[in-house]
Specification:
The chain is mostly helical. The protein has helices spanning about 15-20, 30-40, 50-60, 65-70, 80-85, 90-95, 105-120, 135-145, 150-175. The chain is globular, with a radius of gyration of 17 Å.
């Protein structure tokens, strides 16, 4: 985890600026950043690690219904939204970095089959922090995690959402050095 400061320190910006910069760290869930702003003294969240810790705490305390809504806010990997160009800039870059935009027809068909089976079983999309993974790694994880229980996979998906959020925060810091 990086200990440097974020490019726009929360202690130095307004609520609107905070929301513009950090409101999208958790996919289509600005309520996470809003709750951090309301609950924390801005100086305590000026590093990627401290802001991530505060955001993670908000999500972990949010209750199962809100957590499920957060999971459902994520797109399918290599899914129709990606094909139509409807992903957030962050999701597009993350999926492209893992090579999901270069799937063979067979891989794409398998992703669609796995996405459908996963959604049917768990009621939310398959979520994995794809940075550092390739298509083969992702497909292997997908197949393995389909065997999880609902409770196990709910927790795994939340952990992956937290990893994605931390990577996005660290990326903000790195991009602005």
């Amino acid at each position: 985890m990086t200990t440097g400061y974020l490019p726009r320190r929360p202690s130095k910006i307004s609520y609107d600026e905070f929301m513009d910069i950090y409101g999208g760290i958790y996919e289509h869930s600005p309520w996470v950043a809003a709750a951090v702003w309301q609950r924390h003294i801005p100086e305590t969240v000026d590093t990627p690690g401290s802001l991530h810790f505060a955001m993670k705490g908000v999500v972990d305390a949010a209750g199962e219904d809100r957590q499920l809504a957060l999971l459902r806010a994520h797109p399918d990997l290599g899914g129709r939204a990606a094909v139509r160009g409807e992903l957030t800039a962050e999701s597009t870059a993350e999926q492209k970095g893992a090579g999901l935009d270069q799937c063979s027809p067979e891989e794409f068909a398998e992703l669609q089959t796995l996405n459908n089976a996963y959604q049917e079983k768990f009621g939310f999309p398959f979520i994995i922090a794809v940075r550092g993974l390739n298509r083969t790694d992702i497909l292997e994880n997908f197949r393995r995690r389909l065997a999880h229980s609902h409770a196990q996979e709910f927790q795994t998906a939340l952990e992956e959402v937290h990893k994605i959020a931390l990577l996005r925060l660290v990326n903000l810091e790195v991009d602005h050095k």
